[in-house]
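User: I'm curious what two different proteins look like when written out as structure tokens. Can you demonstrate?

Assistant: Sure. I'll show them one after the other, since each token string lines up with its own sequence. Here's the first protein:
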Amino acid sequence: MILSPKTQVKKNFSDGRAINFYAGPGAIPLPVLERVHAELFNFNGTGMSVMELSHRSDEIQFIIDDSAERIKKLMGLDDQFEIIFLQGGGSLQFLMVPMNFSQPGDPIDYIDTGYWTGKAIRSAQSLGRDLKIIASSSDYNHTSVPNLNQIHTRPGAKFLHLCSNNTVVGTQFHSFPEIPIPVIADMSSDFMSKQIDVSNLSVIYAHAQKNVGLAGTTIVLIRKEMLTKICEGLPEFFDYRTHIKSKSNYHTPPCFSIYITWQILRWIEEDIGGLENLEKINQKKASLLYDFIDSTSLFHCPVEPSSRSQMNVVFTIPNESLEKQFIYETSQAGIIGVAGHRTRGGCRVSLYNGVTLEAVERLIFFMNKFAKQHSTSVTQVII
């Protein structure tokens, strides 16, 4: 395949790969790609690719079951949660969550922190629920998350829904509210990037394409006590219990996508040494980039420091034409995916699990060089 000049990029690393900061699908760890490549034509002595195996085969069911067990082990969970792998992206969960845990007219509470929570809210409203936005960051242009100490849910609300990390605006909750109703978290962009305290969470869902796989798989963790709260009369496909009973094999699952998730979970456990080590790496990547941005006069991060995302670093350049030049020059240097979301503009660098510390250091080196060329007052940062 010959790419057009517009889509061609110079390769930065010696292995010919570009530095990938796309917000999703995100970068896949190179060791995972190498393992997938090695067994692409013959998985585990079957003489077939994983892409060819029957979804009813022992091999596929093992991958599904072992993935769930690895998630439990990495997160320090016991048998308090059921784990299933679904299709339909995180967006399908915007419907499945209110369908399973509320009925028309029931009160459900939501926290609005930007683009994706807006979609979740509109989806739930379409089902005729009594939805209330109990906290929102819209008044300050989504530059920080609401103060959890000031969040008050309604008596009788079936659940509180929030998004833990907001990819578009670069904000993140670093803890979860302690409230008397179930908390349901969309963790699509920070799931398996750090250790989390699940004691206040009843349901977690995450599309895999950021930190733990490819587009096509959505991972859902449901506290077992929530199963008794599921509404009756749902279509089978939309009932979480259907997928739990069928062990994520109710219909043909996205086998290859789940396989990639399995390989990444193995990488986190066996290569990185678990979520504690991975969290330290991710924190260092984010700290390096934020510290550099804050040290310059050219780049500006609008997000309040206490709400800054460890996964998605957003920043701007005061001059719009210079910002466009920066985005263009990064692509020519083999650094891709730094343009901000189409609804927000600016720049965005996504630091998912597959992004290496070396990649961040190379980006900062480039940014420092660019800043020296276009700013008269910038602190020099040496990597």
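Here's a second, unrelated protein for contrast:
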Amino acid sequence: MQNDDLENIQHGQVFRAKQWIYRLIKYLLVRPKPVFDSTLSGKIVAVVGSAPQANIPLNMDDTYRIVTINGSQHTVESWGFAKPHITIMQYNQIEGLNTNAREVRRILRGRETGTLYLMLWRHGRRQLEQGLRAFDYRCDNLEIVDRYRRVSLVRKVSGILNFELDASTKYSNGIIAALLALNSNAAAVILSGIDPSSAGHVYNHVGLARKHSEPDMNMIRRLVKLGMPIFTADPNVSEATGLPLWQPVPTT
């Protein structure tokens, strides 16, 4: 290894350490409250992602709460549910010019949701509302979740303090949605179309790679170890992650 390479690595490590300390101090000063949604309390919650394979949970009906991630509303519509109760979307889906952002806006054009949780939006609320109107996406309630409320949510449910300094440590919005449901005292959380090992999205054929595989897999295993009421509707994900398959308790 060349001296220049070694210096670059050391510089990167120092920068990362400073960034972590800065965020820790701000986190301790702000003391953010983790996201809580009372509409999920005591409910069976289906968190639906956009992995190519997404199975409808057994016995799913109008009593279930549906949480969609980015463009996965396409999937729940195919199941016969036109409007999810909650959608979680990343900030760059609103104005981003990359392929994924364009595809999300295309699939959501003209649709609506209940509550939209917009992650890590850095601009004003007015600009966000204008961005949503630009692709005719509507919501009953709009809530912006900043970095530190997201960190607080992860820590509250899993005990992990993760400032998500780069792509290698960031969780997907599907995992964040599951943590939101668990923190909101959901009776059960069922993942569908959330597969850390998959590539591509069900609503297009672009085949974009997923960036959160390792942190997502680690979090799933953590939640299983903690005994959280989290399941999957997808047999391949159950086999790969150890998540139990959803089997509803028969009613008497």
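A detail about the second structure: The CA atoms of residues 76 and 82 lie 7 Å apart.
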